[in-house]
Amino acid sequence: MKRPFVTRSQLDEIVKEYPTPFHLYDEKGLRENARRVNAAFAWNPGFKEYFAVKATPNPAILKLLREEGCGADCSSLVELLLAEKCGFRGHEIMFSSNNTLAEEYRLADKLGAVINLDDLTHVAFLEQSIGHIPETVFCRYNPGGVFTLGEGKDGLQVMDTPGDAKYGMTRPQIAQAFRALRAKGARTFGIHAFLASNTISNQYYPELAGILFRLAAELKEETGCHIGYINLSGGIGIPYRPEEEANDIALIGRGVQQKFEEILIPAGMGDVRLCGELGRFMTGPYGCLVTRVLHFKHIYKEYVGVDACAADLMRPAVYGAYHHITAAGKEDAPCIQTVDVTGSLCENCDKFAVDRPLPPLEAGDLLVIHDTGAHGHSMGYNYNGKLRSAELLLQEDGGVRLIRRAETPEDYFATAVW
Ligand SMILES: *Cc1c(COP(=O)(O)O)cnc(C)c1O
After folding, report:
1. CA geometry: angle at 275 spanning 163 and 109, to 5°?
2. What are phi and psi of 342, to 5 degrees?
3. What's the pLDDT tens digit per position in 274-293?
């Protein structure tokens, strides 16, 4: 059973001050989880988790994660500016972009960020953009084909298709990139790969680590380059569905350590520092979208209309993603009706849930849409003249702080040329 991190009585207080809908984040959960991640990899001196800014680009969240020792993983100009404004400096910033603009490389270089190249052609493009090649540089690897992880109880645990993904370099290209970068002055190299998304498996990171550690040992032999870093990137998932089991980050850390000892230590590469670029795992479960029930509609199906819409959370509309929904104060009530929970966009995909069992509801009830802490507010948009909602932080002391105000019509009109 999935329970929200916020109670009915807390919500009743919050909505007196802040109108629905809003995204609410749980400071305690965020901090404790960040500490678990760092503890899981503490065996690797120099480990750094670079939080994937795109998941939750809110200054308060970024600063909080920075306080917990995280860096910032950026992939655009504005994300770089945001990281700088939040106090991230130099190698606390990872720049993992693709199809990159010259001005983005220039800003990443100016900030002293670690630059992660997505393509072989970007060796020359980077040099042309910033006038030199940095001493430390990463390259992104794409092994192609299909990536799978063994059998779970419901069949294959994970399957993704790097061969169809636009990211990274092929095996021959990454060796070529290393040689070219070294010839232009690079001294310390990093390897990065992101092979599967939202993996509910404690084997993903260890399996990926095995692939990258073997690649690192080969590239060291082949090119003589010093590989100082291996970046396991994002992809550790969260249990969106009540029947799914959460990943165990401590177990994942030990799995990676085992591969490290099996592969890198014998290769004389025990000085390699690991990095992560987790997004979803860092913030996903520690945010929710709070929305109020407005209308009931009985036609060919039963509909519950709420005051949030896909512009506040697009994952269900775009990916058919499951987000658990509970009604505040009715968490233990039996789910005796099956409804679609809809927003008000003029798009039939604007549904937070389809055929979802829920308890009896009344107009005015507060619904908590779970696990919106990553790729929730950040994917917001203004379609249909919808304004992005506020973001609030439920602090460790129980108080609530506004960390982004809701948009106003003036914000919407601000870019128009009349
Ligand atoms: C999106 C992204 C991440 C984070 O992915 P999660 O699935 O949220 O962990 C990390 N690195 C890069 C380069 C990304 O594009």
Report:
1. 90
2. -120, 155
3. 999 999 999 999 999 999 99
Query: What single-letter amino acid sits at 287?
Result: G
194 Cβ closer than 6 Å to some ligand 1 atom: yes
Q: At a CB cut-off of 8 Å and minimum separation 6, what does 376 contact? A: 23, 56, 287, 289, 312, 313, 315
Distance 277 CA to ligand 1 centre (A): 6
Q: Tell me how far the alpha carbon of residue 233 lies from the centroid of ligand 1, in angstroms.
A: 6
C-alpha–C-alpha distance, residues 241 and 356, integer Å: 12
Question: Cα(162)–Cα(199) distance, rounded to whole angstroms?
Answer: 14
Residue whose CA lies nearest to ligand 1 atom number 3:
234
How much distance in Å is there from the Cα of 251 to the middle of ligand 1? 21
Please tell me the residue having the least CA distance from ligand 1 atom 7.
Answer: 235
| H helix runs in 271-347, sequence order | 280-283, 315-319
CB 291 within 8 A of CB 308: yes
pTM, rounded to two decimals: 0.97
